[in-house]
Amino acid sequence: MNYFFALLAGLGFGLGLTISGMVDPLIVLAFLDVAGKWDPSLLFVMGGALVVFTPAYQLVKTKMSQPLFAEKFYVPSSSAIDKPLIIGAIIFGLGWGISGICPGPAVANITGFEEKIFGFILAMIVGMITARRIKARRIKAIKG
Prior knowledge:
The protein is mainly alpha-helical. The protein has helices spanning 2-20, 25-32, 41-63, 83-99, 103-108, 115-143. The chain contains six helices and no strands. It has one domain (2-143).
């Protein structure tokens, strides 16, 4: 049942990205082009998401002891800004800036059957596998 609700949430997210036009890499690149033809539409999409998310998160934090469709909340426990986080953010930002594609819109764009999207998703999967292996090695080295 959890997978069903995860699927619904993902479909809703993808639909929202599609309706807002955020699956178009050119719109994202235009947002990042602050010195050229800057397009602020992505800013409005992010602002709209915050308008929905902020009160919902406060409700979850203060009023709910358990999610409706899961056993517990999965909220990040670490607030540390460490080297892996900074390196990951830099790699993510470079990939987004170079390609104009973010992972969420990339997955939503699968239905367009564009080579660029499949290439991006393949690179994303390779990156995720590589990151998982590096993390496992680091944990193994720490434990000795």
